[in-house]
Amino acid sequence: AKVKRAFLSQLPSNVRYLEHTGVEYQGLKIWGSPTVCCREETLGKRYLSNAFERRRAERQQIWSQIPEGLDVLMTHVPPHRILCSSDCGCELLLNRLKHLSQPPLFHCFGHY
Fold this sequence. Notes:
The protein is α/β, with parallel strands linked by helices. Helices cover 26% and strands 21% of the residues. It has 4 helices and 6 strands. The strands form 2 sheets. Strands 1-2-5-6 form a 4-stranded mixed sheet, with no helix packed on it. The radius of gyration is 15 Å and the shape is flat.
């Protein structure tokens, strides 16, 4: 928490850090999350750098917060098997997106 506060305090005033939150910018509805799958669950290994790794139950709760009718969804992890190898991505995220009646117009995601 201390490191996060220090990081956030250094951001320019026109930058928004999205951690399971949204913002509206010039009429665009944007929601973002840095969450990724927990490698302890998927690979059976714990890594030093696991800041955004979350177990299934917590990811389920996070993805349930993705609102309907977004213009842009930004996530670190891709939906399962979307523009990644067959064993990558998050099944829970894919499921949430499939069940939205108004899915995001654009989904930008990083690597897995």
